[in-house]
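Margin note from the TA: students keep mixing up input and output lines. Inputs are the sequences; the output is the structure of the whole complex. Example:
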Amino acid sequence: MKYRSAPEAPAFLSPIAKLCSLRWNAASGVVEVIDQTRLPHTLRWCELQDLDSYCHAISTMQVRGAPLIGITAAFGLAQALSMDPSTEHLQAASARLLATRPTAVNLRWALESVAAAVRELDPADRGEVALATAQQLRARDIASCSRIGDHGLALLQALECAGPLNIMTHCNAGWLATVEWGTALAPVYKAHAAGIPVHVWVSETRPRNQGMNLTAWELQRAGVPCTVVADNSCGQLMRRGAVDCVLVGSDRTAANGDVCNKIGTYLKALAARANDIPFYVALPESTIDWHCASGDDIPIEERDQAEVLTVTGLDHAGRPQALALAAGDTLAHNPAFDVTPAELVTALVTEHGSFEASAAGLGRLRAQIFSSSPT
Amino acid sequence: MKYRSAPEAPAFLSPIAKLCSLRWNAASGVVEVIDQTRLPHTLRWCELQDLDSYCHAISTMQVRGAPLIGITAAFGLAQALSMDPSTEHLQAASARLLATRPTAVNLRWALESVAAAVRELDPADRGEVALATAQQLRARDIASCSRIGDHGLALLQALECAGPLNIMTHCNAGWLATVEWGTALAPVYKAHAAGIPVHVWVSETRPRNQGMNLTAWELQRAGVPCTVVADNSCGQLMRRGAVDCVLVGSDRTAANGDVCNKIGTYLKALAARANDIPFYVALPESTIDWHCASGDDIPIEERDQAEVLTVTGLDHAGRPQALALAAGDTLAHNPAFDVTPAELVTALVTEHGSFEASAAGLGRLRAQIFSSSPT
């Protein structure tokens, strides 16, 4: 994996549609992604040149966000097949990529999409078709997120509020978590573009601070007013009437409407319910796990305790540093996701429209998907 | 204010009853407190020699925790009167100390206790009586916390659980927040001493990390097993059955039983209720604001956004460092407390016993206080 400074950094101040997290460099024939572990302090693109670098990028969260994990894995499998298109390698590379993160279901969905497209082909044709499939998935993700933005915008427009619309979000479900637009932030960007005054409460999202590091950075670049708060503040903000709706993403959605998302989402859903605030979850169809009957069946990734016990930032000289927060003998536990029961979710906002978070609501979504597409 | 290394550091590994956060040095005639902003990395006692150093210690949170703030302020007022016992100075010094933190009601209670004891006296006698009153308040705090521990222990013993008792706490309500024992941690220490297997889930308590910095440090010194988690993890832990009860302190309790405590407490109370987990609040009588009809009347301190946007810890060489977490143009909002409605509180655990968190429950507590003491 090679790093280089981004020549197009100024373009990040251009309209939102120009922003993307993953791009195909046709000249070099490799995928480039923003290394999100360096944000918000450094914007670096990194080239993913082989299967190792793809696995490393996903497992170390250089790329993260369920949709982007899926798209990245699809390109990773295509890259692996361009080197060795054998059936054995197809299986081995798929298995390695699948093992990088256990919770996001898009990973499996994307790998299966590529594998299904090439499995019956002559090995000599697999690399090219796999790459074309990954490109299609990328284009589809962009289109899906844009439609999520349109459907979410309709929900935001239906909310009555006196001043600016105060939207609370958690973690990062913006264009950094997808390819463009984002899921939960897509309606925010569409509202901002439509001239609706919005303000976003960004919960910092410990332990990895994706809210502070990624969401605040994204929103600031797009000119959307936002304020960072400690995750602990979110209940109090809702209690004192400072929040008009909560809008988050999903890493995996069960067939009964339970939502598995970044740890801390469940607490916000409880506070929203207690204070009669709509709690919307924005997600592409690809995050729905139709085989998963309820959120209790979703495996919750447990990550290294060092993510809780240490922190990174910039020192007074502007140099990146890591610090130990706790005393040396401290133990920590670090689940990366939690499950929000469907009954706390006001609506699931998808590229196909908004649906009730329930088995019945997802049944209607599924019927709509099958009626609109024969696949 | 002078700093010196603590010669008695090894004593912190001795039994809990030996541990204290504030002591009177009879030889030098000054109060010494642990500088809690240095924990867990450095244990330093600091001498409070004049009114400035008392105000600084409270406002910068070198001492914190509602009971300890009150005791410290009482000694601060005594110190001020030893320099100038005039009525004007009594009023001016009280006003300065009262302004250091707006939320904890113990501050006002302790200052009024000292002022009431000296107001009618000849100025020449005020310094000595004020100091004796502060000493009495300190002794009373220790006794109250020990009784809170006994009453809380009875509640813990009534909980049925298979393995170790899993107690979740928030912020620090241990002996560092009082003089000895603590409020929420007193029952934990009593249970541990009684041979009951306990394990404490310590939520780190952003933005100032009092859970990670103070509570984990306290518990480890006392040999109580504990695990730090991000504040975001607390709902998921409750949902998966890993928590038998939640036990927190209170900075101010309203006459209807609403509890104002460290920001994030309310979210834990919501999660406890949703998962049928007892939510106990341990507090001395001195944190009850009988003039405050409901939690909505309690002023919520808003602190500097730098507490959210920067963090301190130890670098790889073991040196204390501060880091910037967010991009330079990021705004943050930093309320220090939230209000948990009485209906989410299973019981208020006081030095007088356990009471329902309601106007009726507090009425019974008040009747008991007045029947047992003519003051």
